């Protein structure tokens, strides 16, 4: 495992709306701190940073355009040289020619962080792996919420997070910690 000099950091949906209490109980309360650690390292090392912003199609969504929840949290505001990808579906590869743009920039390795582990993070990581990118997911820099399964059984955010990471590990991505990523840099 080695972090490439041009590995891209993909930060998913770190918008104000994700902090709304009505979304429920979440796991990894330190996830944003781990994202900030990684973002600082990426900026210092000059590696590419990609900010993904969700623009919902649902008026009752915390990410509905033209309201405060859609805006980036202050600590995750994109800087001038950083990429911005806007999406209306969970998978960041479904819009904006992200794969082509990464290939044009010579980027073959991705580190994915953000929210929600079982939604936008998992779908983006699956596509990245399927498209042939060396994909890492920093598990402690992602989080999700309690969620009922298909049969109506409430699963804790930790269970949802763990299952999602289990879906990714080995087939679509390599699951790592933020500290492991930083140690490779």
Question: Given the structure, what is the number of helices?
Answer: 5
Determine the strand fraction and express it as a percent band. 15-25%
Described by strand count, sense and barrel closure, the largest sheet is: 6 strands, parallel
Strands, total number: 8
Low-confidence stretches: none
Tell me the structural class. alpha/beta
Biggest β-sheet: strands ordered side by side in the sheet: 3-2-1-4-5-8
What is the rounded Rg? 15 Å
CATH H-level superfamily title = Isochorismatase-like
Order of helices and strands: EHEEHEHEEEHEH
- Give the integer mean of the pLDDT values: 96
CATH uppermost class: Alpha Beta
Which topology does CATH recognise? Rossmann fold
Shape: globular
Report the end-to-end length measured between terminal Cα atoms: 11 Å
The count of domains is 1
CATH architecture: 3-Layer(aba) Sandwich
Keywords: Hydrolase
Domain Isochorismatase-like: 7-158
GO molecular function, one term: hydrolase activity
Pfam families: Isochorismatase
Summarize the structure in words.
With 185 residues, the protein is of the alpha/beta class. It has one domain: Isochorismatase-like (Rossmann fold), CATH 3.40.50. It is 30% helix and 22% strand. The chain is built from 5 helices and 8 strands. The longest helix has 15 residues. The chain is globular. The N and C termini lie close together (11 Å). InterPro entries: Isochorismatase-like_dom, Isochorismatase-like_hydrls, Isochorismatase-like_sf.
Q: How would you summarize what this structure contains?
A:
This is Cysteine hydrolase. The chain has 185 residues and is α/β, with parallel strands linked by helices.
